[in-house]
Amino acid sequence: MAKDTRRRDFLRLTAAAGGAGLLASCSRGSATSAAGATGAPGAAAATADGASRAIAAPQATGSPSPADWTALGHDLSGPLVRPGDAAYTVSKRLFDPRFDSLHPAGIAYCRNPHDVSTCLAFVRKYGIPVAARCGGHSYAGWSSTSGLIVDVTKMAGVNVSGSTATVGAGTHLIDFYNGLAAHGRAVPGGSCPTVGIAGLTLGGGVGVVSRAYGLTSDNVKSLQIVTADGQVRTCNSSQNSDLFWACRGGGGGNFGVVTSFTFGTHPAGQIVLFFLSWPWSQAARVIAAWQSWAPHAPDALWSNLHLAAAPGGSVPSIQVGGTYLGSISAAAAQLEKLYAAAGSPPSSPFMETTSWLHAMLVEAGCASLTVNECHLPTQNPQGRLSRASEYAKSDIFTKPLSSRGIGTLLAGVEKFQRAGGAPGASGGIAFDALGGAVNRVAPGATAFVHRNGLFQAQYTTTWPQGSAAAAVARQHAWQQSFWQSMRPYASGQAYQNYIDPALTNWRQAYYGANYTRLTQVKAKYDPHRVFTFPQAV
Ligand SMILES: Cc1cc2nc3c(=O)[nH]c(=O)nc-3n(C[C@H](O)[C@H](O)[C@H](O)COP(=O)(O)OP(=O)(O)OC[C@H]3O[C@@H](n4cnc5c(N)ncnc54)[C@H](O)[C@@H]3O)c2cc1C
C-alpha cells in the first residue's frame, strides 16, 4: 500500500476509534448519578507552620441574597456568572451534554489564588456547596454543583525554565503539550486535548509515554493549592508533604483547589506512531499476543488495544496503536514480536516517525487540525471540536486474561451489535498497557496505589446527540453487564480518573491501602468537608 494511502487509513481509523485513537477515546462519560456536591462547609484554622487544626464549624449565615452574590462578584478579579446572565448557559456546561440540566448558583472564573480564597470564604459563610472545575471532564459531572463552581481555566499557561515547567492549573491538555513542545520539552499526559491538567494530574494521568516517564502525577515536583480554610499553600517534598502525597493520585475535588503545578520535564524529540488492525476472526490470538507483549516491552514502547462494535454491525473491529521512543527500525523489531505471537501480521499496518507535538495532535484526534482548532469553540474561537456523551467504567488487570476470559471479552463486544443501541452509537473496550515506569513507583509513595497493573481497561459506549433515551439506556445496560461479566478476571482495582458513580466499593477500588492515609490528610486540611461529592475521600 502506498504510504499516503496508509496514512489516510491510519488517520481515518484513529479518528474512528473515538477521536483520540491510540489511547482511550476523547468522548467518554459516566454513569447516571446527578452531579451535585452536598457540602456542609465549615472552617479550619491554619497554625503557624501552615498545617490546619480542626475547629468547630462556624454556623453558616443562611443562603446568600442576590446582593451577597453581587458583592462576591465585586470582590473577584475574574468574572462571576449567575443564572440569568447571557453567559450562564454556556458557562455552566461540562464536557458531556448529559450534565446540561445542572444549574449551579454561580460560576466564578478565578484569575488568581486570592479569587479562590474569596470564593471559599463565601461558601463557608453561607454554607453552600462548592466544586472546583478545570476541563469539566468528570465522568460523573462532579465538577458541577448546585452551589458555586470555582473555575480555574483563567489560570492557564506554561512557563518553562530549564527542565522545569510551571503550569497554570486551568491549562487544557493540548495547550500543555504545545507550551512544553515550544521549549522542546514533554510531560506524560492523556490523549484528550480538552481534558484539564488539574483533574488529570490529581487522579494520576495515564498517557502514551507513561511506560517511559510515569504518570502525569509522578512528574509533579511542587504544586500550589488553596485549602478549605482559604490558605494558599505550597506543597512539595518538604512543605505540606502529606498534602503533596495526597494530591498525586488522591483524586480531584478532595483536598482544595489547585492553582498551579510545577513539573519535571523530559526532552521532546521525534516519536514513532504505529497503528495496526487485524480481521475480527484473529481477535482471540491478537488479544493473547498483545497482553503477553505490551506490558513487558521496553519502556520506550507504549501500546493500546481497542475492540469496538456498532449496533447491527457486521463484525467488530480490533486495533492496536502505540508509540515508540526511538528509531522506526527498532519500533518495527518490537512489532515483529507481536506479529509472531499473534501468528499473523496486521492486515492494515501503519508506522511513521513524527514530531512530538504532531503525535499529540494525532493522539487527540486532531491530526489535520492546528493547535487552536484542537479545542472546543468555548475554549478557543478557532476551536473545531465538539462535546460528546459517553458512559465509562474501568478495570485494572494484574493477570493476563485466560482463554476463557478472552472468550468472555469477545462475547461482550459482540453483544453490543445486538444490544439495541442508537444509530451511530459505538460500544467497546480500550486497554492501555501499564508496567514500565508506572510500576517502578511504590504503591504508597504517592496516593496513586495502582502500581502492579499489566494494563487498564475502559469500557465505553457513546451515542450521537439527540439519540432516543431508550436506546441509550440499552447501551448503558449492555456496558454494565459487559463489565459484570469480566469480574472473574479483573483485579477489583479501578482508575479514579474514570470516576464511576455505580461503583459501590470505590474506596478500595480507587485507593486500596492508601485510603486510610487519604482520610487523615482530608481530616487535617478539610475537617468540615467543604469539598465533598458522592465519592469524596
Ligand atoms: C473524553 C475523555 C478523555 C479522557 N482521556 C484520558 C486519558 O487519556 N488519560 C487519563 O488518564 N484520563 C483521561 N480521562 C479522564 C480524566 O483524566 C478525568 O476525567 C479528569 O478528572 C478530568 O479532569 P478535568 O479537569 O478535565 O475535569 P473536571 O471535571 O474539571 O475535574 C475533575 C475532578 O477534579 C476536580 N478539579 C478540577 N479542577 C481542580 C482543581 N484545580 N483543584 C482541585 N480539584 C479540581 C473537580 O472538582 C472534579 O472532581 C479522560 C476523560 C474524558 C471525559
3D architecture notes:
By secondary structure, this protein is α+β, with helices and mostly antiparallel strands. It contains 15 helices and 20 strands. The strands form five sheets. A seven-stranded antiparallel β-sheet has the order 17-14-16-15-19-20-18, with helices on both faces. Strands 7-8-12-10-11 form a five-stranded antiparallel β-sheet. Helix 9 packs across helix 10 and helix 9 crosses helix 12 (403-416). The site of flavin-adenine dinucleotide has 39 residues, from strand 5, helix 6 and strand 12.
* Bound ligands: flavin-adenine dinucleotide
**Helical proportion?**
25-40%
Helices and strands: which structural class?
alpha+beta
Work out the number of β strands.
20
Tell me about the largest β-sheet: 7 strands, antiparallel
Which range does the strand content fall in? Answer: 15-25%
| CA-atom Rg in angstroms | 22 Å
Strand order of the largest sheet: 17-14-16-15-19-20-18
Q: State the helix count.
A: 15
Short key terms for the protein model shown above:
single chain, 537 residues, alpha+beta, five-stranded antiparallel β-sheet, 15 helices, 20 strands, 21% strand, disordered N terminus
Chain-wise SSE layout:
Blueprint: H1 3-16, E1 44-46, E2 52-54, H2 66-75, E3 80-81, H3 88-91, E4 106-109, H4 113-126, E5 130-133, E6 148-151, E7 158-161, E8 164-168, H5 173-181, E9 185-186, H6 197-202, H7 210-213, E10 220-226, E11 232-235, H8 241-246, E12 257-264, E13 266-267, E14 270-278, H9 283-293, E15 301-309, E16 317-324, H10 328-342, E17 348-355, H11 356-363, E18 389-397, H12 403-416, E19 426-433, E20 455-463, H13 469-485, H14 506-511, H15 515-525
Parallel strand pairs: 4-6, 5-6
Antiparallel strand pairs: 1-2, 3-4, 7-8, 8-12, 9-13, 10-11, 10-12, 14-16, 14-17, 15-16, 15-19, 18-20, 19-20
This protein binds flavin-adenine dinucleotide.
